[in-house]
Amino acid sequence: MTEKEYNGIFVFAEQRGGEIHHVSYELLNKAEELAAELNCPIFAALLGPTGIKAEELIYRGANKVYYLEDQAFGQPDELFYKENLVDLIDELKPEIILVGATNFGRSLAPRVAAALDTGLTADCTELRVDQAGKLLQIRPAFSENILAQIETVTYPQMATVRYKEFVERKRDGTLEGEIIKKRPTKVQDQSVEILELLEQQEINIAEAEVVVAGGKGIKKAAGFELLQRLATELGGVIGASRDIIDVGYLSKEYQIGYSGYRIAPKIYIACGISGAPQHVAGIKEADKIIAINTDPSAPIFEVADYGIVGDLYQVIPRLIEEVEEDERRDN
Amino acid sequence: MKIIVLIKQVPEMERVKFDTTRGVINRKSAGVEINPFDLNALEAALQIKEEFAAEVIALSMGPTRAEGVIKEAIARGADDGILLTDRKFSGADTRATAYLLASAIDKIGNVDLVIAGEMTVDGDTAQVGPQTAEYLGLAHIAYVTKLEEITEDYLTVVAPTWDGNYSKKINYPGLITVTKDLNTPRLPLLKRKLEVREAEVEKWGIADFETELDPQDVGLKGSCTRVRKIEVPSPVEREGKMWTGDQLREAITEVAQICQEKDRMGE
Questions:
Q1: CB-based contact (8 Å) between B16 and chain A?
Q2: How does pLDDT run along chain B (267 residues), one tens digit per residue?
Q3: Nearest CA in chain B to A76
Q4: Contacts of B266 in chain A (CB under 8 A)
């Protein structure tokens, strides 16, 4: 196969409950950069129930949106998605395929790659085009100690990117493009049945603007009530390092780091968190990192913008007081 | 009922030191262990075995020294194990790894359930499970956090997908990948540990396969991705202002201000 046979950048536009996930807009932003280098079109593949505002993908830079409409896409069924995506990819023959590394994307993309007998690079933090027009995929490895530059020797070249890794393409309502509505080419089978949605996630830590997180130094579960007060005061949410999840103070949806959520808040406040590399991996995209820790040699201070050496049980109540006072003064 | 558990030998990631100048891990700085998530996969298989007369086989690909993880899996309760080892298997990316694992599972035959850890701690891709399922032509469920109903024909499980937890049912044959939340792995039995110490681990090289495998599809040859270069990331510059002891008042004032400036940040 030659490169010429494959043209265009294909973005999998993930939707949930008829809402397009914002990681799709982040992928479109990167796709636009790559397409400018390669001088090629951008396709967005939207698989979902009827009634999704597919034009939003045009306003975010897609030239053509392939909208496969079927109620069955309202269920996260990887096999059904895979079969239909593979047919669409075979028809379009894109040179690059980008998928958001959400829990669903991370489960779906490997199936698609295997079905196409092509390579897949997980969790890329940067994507570039080299002089030969090949996609260079950069991903961290070994707890973020190194960055590996990876190339794919087959086509299409596939990569997943974590949510919040890239900035999203700004919406431009004047952009034009084409929406091609299609019916699924394959039907859903019953090898996996999605029985029911048990519970909706309580918090969405990945999208919070302020995150106040606790680690080992918090010592008791009740300490999170204090963190919650500060978080509420600042319009944010609480989070935790892995130690806290392991002892069961909070559930996994609060976990920040390598094996938890990667976050990109405007303010991140680390309370009693030592700052293991596995934790730092999840917070490096934060605009401002504030660390509170009794141990002045804690590694968290090396990555923090502001560090307070002190006991969180003394510092945080005073911080809450100060913020409340400032707000009263401003009003 | 036959259950395959996929396992991998990995460096002890919590202890391993890193040679940043050469861009490689210092293998002497830490030992090796079973990928921690694979212990949860094995435990799940053993729990199913407790309900039904299942045969649990641990399957791994790696150099000959990786037979240690097969022995450990047997000490922990697996009935048997196979190590896929051959010079021609080396240099495999996730695609070539999954292809080989699927070929071996085909060769074993009559497999009802394949269980894998959600990812490995050294590769961190979470790709091999779903890729193996695809090469086997089986359905899969990723990130299982709970086994609900265990029967001889199907499993019902809980797995987080999209913004919630879903109850899902998978009919055999199928593949699941499991998280650390699923269970607490049991420890190896000393008696079994002693038994397997001298035992010979079954090893399959490329010559042991017939029609199940195309030699072009394994190892480096069968890999679709190549590492072109290793870079050491440049540390992010941060302001790094610190307050100690008696500067607490000043710290509180300044930090409170920073917190409230957030609405003007990131523009």
A1: yes
A2: 999 999 999 988 767 777 666 666 677 788 899 999 999 999 999 999 999 989 999 999 999 999 999 999 999 999 999 999 999 999 999 999 999 999 999 999 999 999 999 999 888 899 999 999 999 999 999 999 999 999 999 999 999 999 899 999 999 999 999 998 899 999 999 999 999 988 899 999 999 999 889 999 999 999 999 998 887 777 677 888 999 878 888 999 999 998 888 665 544
A3: B161
A4: 266, 287
Q: Is B161 touching A (CB cutoff 8 A)?
A: yes
Partner residue opposite B161 with nearest CB, options A79, A104, A199: A104
| Residue B124 forms part of a structural domain | yes
DSSP code per residue over A5-36: G--SEEEEE-EETTEEPTHHHHHHHHHHHHHH
Closest chain A residue to the Cα of B24, Cα to Cα:
A146
Between CA A268 and CA A69 the distance in angstroms is: 40
List chain A residues with CB under 8 Å of B257. Answer: 326
For residues A185-219, one letter each, b for 16 or more C-beta atoms within 10 angstroms of the residue's C-beta and e for the rest, the string is eeebeebbbbeebeeeeebebbebbbbbbbbebbe
- How far is it, in rounded angstroms, from Cα B108 to Cα B208? 12
Q: Where are the alpha helices (DSSP H) in chain B?
A: 36-51, 67-75, 94-108, 128-136, 190-197, 248-260
Q: For the domain that residue B38 is a member of, what is the CATH number? A: 3.40.50.620
Chain A residue with CA closest to B251: the answer is A308
Instruction: List chain A residues with CB under 8 Å of B23.
Output: 146
Whole-number Å distance between alpha carbons of B35 and A318: 44
Q: ipTM, 2 decimals?
A: 0.91
Report CB contact under 8 Å: B238, A144. Answer: no
Closest-CA residue of A relative to B240 is: A305
Backbone angles phi, psi at A196, to 5 degrees: -165, 160
The minimal CB distance from B169 to the residues A78, A114, A192 is found for A192
8 Å CB contact between B42 and B7: yes
CATH numbers and ranges of domains, chain A: 3-182 (3.40.50.620), 205-330 (3.40.50.1220)
Query: How many CB atoms are closer than 10 A to CB A330?
Result: 7
The answer to the question of residue B31 being in a domain is: yes
Q: Tell me the count of A-B CB pairs closer than 8 A.
A: 262
Count the domains in chain B: 1
For residue B169, is it within any domain? yes
CB nearest A296 (choices: B229, B231, B244):
B244
Cβ separation of A192 and B165 shorter than 8 Å?
no
Sequence-ordered strand ranges (E) for A162-222: 178-182, 192-200, 210-214
d(CA B27, CA B12): 9
Rounded to a whole number of angstroms, the distance from the CA of B200 to the nearest CA of chain A is: 32
Is residue B244 one of the residues assigned to a domain?
no
Going B57 to B63 to B66 to B67, the CA torsion angle's sign is positive
- Number of neighbours of residue A331 by Cβ within 10 angstroms: 5
Contact between chains at B248 and A318 (C-beta distance less than 8 A): yes
Mutate: best of B100, B259, B260, B263, partner A, most A CBs <10 A: B259
- Before B130, cis peptide (omega within 30)? no
